[in-house]
Amino acid sequence: MMDIKTYNVIAEEGLAEFPKKIYTINQSQRPDALLIRSQDMHKTPFGTNILAIARAGAGVNNIPLVTATDMGTVVFNTPGSNANAVKELIVAMLLLASRPVVPAINWAHKLGGADVSLQTEKGKDHFAGTELLGKSIGVVGLGSVGSRVAKATADLGMKVIGYDPYISVEHAWQLSSDIPRAETLEELLEQSDFVTIHIPYTDRNHNLIGAKQIEQMRDGAVLLNYSRGGIVDDAAVLRALDAGKISQFMTDFGTPALAANKKVIVTPHLGGTTEEAEVNGARMAAQTLRRYLETGNINNSVNFPSVDMPFEAPLRLTLIHRNVPNMVGRITTILANYNLNIDNMINRSREQIAYTVIDMAAIPTEQFEEIRTELMTIPEVIRVRILKNPITFQ
Ligand SMILES: NC(=O)C1=CN([C@@H]2O[C@H](COP(=O)(O)OP(=O)(O)OC[C@H]3O[C@@H](n4cnc5c(N)ncnc54)[C@H](O)[C@@H]3O)[C@@H](O)[C@H]2O)C=CC1
Ligand SMILES: O=C(O)C(=O)COP(=O)(O)O
Question: Ligand 1: which residue has its CA nearest to atom 29?
Fold first, then answer.
């Protein structure tokens, strides 16, 4: 049996992916893997018993990736699972930035008496807005969310300009060729009535939008941050709002200072919070976790290489080790000493870490621990697992 520990609200549909015959959920003091959303894993200790952490969602800045990698803990996310939810919220926020719908509703609800319609017609002009049609929007980051935002806003008749110097081939294909791309962030900022950010929080992206970038924006522009706090320098934004340089800031990452400012609209980290996105993310995370725990195959990892080798032999050895020369030689020498014949093998690396998967014929279960211990004597080996093929193992 393996135990999955969860943090945050994880959709039942995702948990249902774990068959009760082989998994328990939140039952063990020493779980085998974690299934989380925004839980701050920098402040949540986890030990080497944790083989993997699956983040149902996109951002992984809540997970100490270097520590996890050094411990041999594979971290996954669920690319694109909540991108439509974020896109739809961005459309809503753009509309709210253009038309004072919320104050207008609050006003309308307070109206009373027999002449409500008279008061309505007399007062509604206080709530006149503007239209999105023909306005320009700069989309910073053209990944799963940004590419969808670019398409949706183009469909609304906005003039879209994108910026993503690191765009993946897959996302570049998804992006309409009609959407022009800026060479520099400055070029995007200078041309946009609205600027929306859809990039991960990394050291490099800390305060990507600061005082200098805000100065490059159009006077009266609207800024949206539905990526992460820390990507936008909130103090610089508040100064720019007070000075009238930008007109509104809409963010999913509130602070007391932001919430106290009338030109700021704060939403409570709602981007990925729809029923559909929660189910998508939980299912995808659970499936990815199961694949890794049961077969050792890796996809959608943010710290380990992808590996997809059909599990056909009775036994599979998986080894996480440092990416240094002659590892495969040293590993196979040990296996040869046990007279073990290799059916299939794959070795992949990603930066400092490497992953070797070896398929072979059945050996007695009693030998597992001895072989595992011997392989662990190689100093660069971090973790060894021996997986039984549930179909072929005798
Ligand atoms: N508010 C919410 O609830 C949600 C927030 N997010 C945030 O949005 C981020 C993006 O999500 P996805 O689009 O799904 O991720 P993604 O990985 O598909 O796309 C991110 C894109 O940003 C680009 N990028 C990175 N640094 C950049 C920079 N300095 N300038 C321009 N482009 C840059 C990358 O090349 C990539 O194409 C996540 O990392 C997460 O922090 C995502 C989902 C929900
Ligand atoms: O996917 C992301 O990066 C998000 O920010 C969504 O976070 P959540 O799963 O709603 O806590």
Answer: 205
**ipTM score of the complex?**
0.99
| Ligand 2 atom nearest to CA at 228 | 5
With a CB cutoff of 8 Å and minimum separation 6, the contacts of 314 are 360, 361, 362, 388, 389, 392, 393, 394
| The overall pTM is greater than 0.90 | yes
CB 50 within 8 A of CB 31: yes
Query: For residue 104, is it within any domain?
Result: no
Domain shared by 216 and 319, yes or no: no
What's the pLDDT tens digit per position in 274-301?
A: 999 999 999 999 999 999 999 999 999 9
Q: What is the mean pLDDT of residues 238-250?
A: 98
Ligand 1 is surrounded, with C-beta below 6 A, by 57-59, 79, 82-83, 86, 140-146, 163-164, 166-168, 171, 198-201, 205, 208, 226-228, 252, 269, 271-272
What pLDDT score was predicted for residue 392?
61
Question: At 376, which CATH number?
Answer: 3.30.70.260
Is there a domain that residue 336 lies in? yes
Number of separate domains in the chain: 3
Range(s) of the domain holding residue 193: 83-97+131-266
